[in-house]
């Protein structure tokens, strides 16, 4: 087993004494330093090779990194080297924005959960694309997803413009594009999951994608990331719209506003999206319903609460084609990746 795997529990103890966001930034910095040093890079694990086809893309394995951990796409190669079969970065917005005031990331260790209210903090589209272009992951055959959103200052009625601007920018550099309409930390964003608003957004994206496909000579798959807090009727409405507007897949799910499983824990009442094991069952229910409604033609990527190989397998059994990790990685470290790869085969 890699030294990196063995060292993580000790490193986590130290990191958890720090403010959660500072620990996040420090971890990415140290990981990048290790990756950049050729002597240390040999301690990175071998990427488990369990190839799977998703939306016409060949994944090295079906365990990916969820968006949000590397919002600016500044650490793609280092994160991919942990063993992920595919990597998604962002969410990026057209213009740089600071996000919500700090503190905005909170640990709930007893639940192995996090609450965040980042608010799409990122350096903007130009910096994001420059980082993506500097990475070598795609050039070496890796599958890279780029996650797009809208600026907080953009009125909801103009949200389509922000998504189209981002799609134009990321299209040449993406293996797939994720349309994030489910973060709870940008005011009113989740309203875009509603039927009429979602239909208008997806129609505009479909038309722009067709033009970009002609321009660049390649069709890039698009997926939509949705919330776990939707009613059955809302999930059904989304499932009906996805194939109508040519969407290739759906990511289920983002963070939840539900606090029922963490009541009484320190920080449980903080505003923001809750991630980790408390989201798992909510995500499973959405995945099952989506698969019932979508059949087998639309890809589903399962995310939310995967803290063990067993939970990754449950996502696949519920109907997901692949899975993504985020909070489980914070608590378990990179050993979780290989455990999940083994569990889904």
Structure characterization notes:
- The protein has 345 residues and is α/β, with parallel strands linked by helices.
- It has a single domain, classed as Aldolase class I (TIM Barrel).
- It has 12 helices and 13 strands.
- The chain has helices at 3-15, 20-36, 38-41, 76-80, 125-134, 159-170, 195-216, 232-244, 280-294, 309-318, 327-332, 335-343, and strands at 52-54, 57-59, 63-65, 86-92, 105-108, 113-116, 143-148, 176-180, 222-226, 249-252, 273-275, 299-303, 322-325.
- The longest helix has 22 residues, at 195-216.
- The two termini are 20 Å apart.
CATH fold-type name: TIM Barrel
**Structural class by helix and strand composition:** alpha/beta
**Oligomeric state of the chains?**
single chain
The total of helices stands at 12
Q: Stretches where pLDDT falls below 50 for ≥5 residues?
A: none
CATH homologous superfamily identity: Aldolase class I
The arrangement of helices and strands along the chain is: HHHEEEHEEEHEHEHEHEEHEHEHH
Strand order of the largest sheet: 3-4-7-8-9-10-12-13
- Give the % helix: 25-40%
What's the domain count? 1
Estimated radius of gyration? 19 Å
Q: Class in CATH?
A: Alpha Beta
Tell me the fraction of residues in β-strands, as a range: 15-25%
Biggest beta-sheet profile: 8 strands, parallel, barrel
Strand segment tally = 13
Shape: globular
Terminal CA distance reads: 20 Å
- Tell me, rounded to a whole number, the average pLDDT: 93
């Amino acid at each position: 087993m890699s030294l990196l795997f063995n060292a993580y529990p000790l490193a986590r103890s130290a990191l958890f004494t720090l403010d959660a966001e500072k620990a996040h930034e420090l971890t990415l910095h140290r990981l990048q330093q290790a990756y950049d040093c050729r002597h240390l890079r040999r301690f990175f694990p071998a990427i488990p090779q369990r190839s799977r086809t998703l939306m016409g893309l060949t994944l090295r394995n079906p365990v990916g990194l969820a968006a949000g951990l590397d919002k600016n796409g500044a650490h793609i190669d280092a994160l991919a080297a942990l063993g992920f079969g595919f990597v998604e970065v962002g969410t990026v917005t057209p213009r740089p924005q600071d996000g919500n005031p700090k503190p905005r990331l909170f640990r709930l260790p007893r639940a192995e959960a996090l609450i965040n209210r980042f608010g799409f903090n990122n350096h903007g589209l130009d910096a994001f694309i420059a980082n993506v272009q500097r990475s070598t992951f795609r050039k070496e055959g890796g599958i890279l997803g780029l996650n797009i959103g809208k600026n907080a200052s953009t009125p909801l009625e103009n949200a389509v413009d922000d998504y189209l601007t981002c799609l134009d920018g990321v299209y040449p550099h993406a293996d797939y594009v994720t349309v994030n309409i489910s973060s709870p930390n940008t005011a009113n964003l989740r309203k875009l999951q509603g039927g009429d608003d979602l239909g208008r957004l997806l129609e505009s994206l479909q038309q722009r994608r067709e033009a970009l496909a002609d321009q660049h000579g390649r069709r890039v798959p698009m997926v939509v990331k949705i919330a776990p807090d939707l009613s059955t009727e809302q999930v059904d409405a989304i499932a009906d719209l996805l194939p109508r507007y040519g969407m290739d897949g759906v990511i289920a799910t983002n963070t939840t506003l539900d606090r029922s499983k963490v009541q009484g824990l320190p920080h449980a009442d903080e505003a923001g999206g809750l991630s980790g094991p408390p989201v798992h069952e909510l995500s499973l229910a959405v995945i099952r319903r989506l698969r019932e409604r979508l059949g087998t033609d639309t890809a589903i990527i399962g995310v939310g609460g995967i803290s063990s190989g067993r939970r990754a397998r449950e996502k696949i059994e519920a109907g997901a084609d692949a899975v993504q990790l985020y909070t489980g990685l914070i608590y378990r470290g990179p050993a979780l990746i290989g455990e999940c790869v083994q569990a889904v085969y």
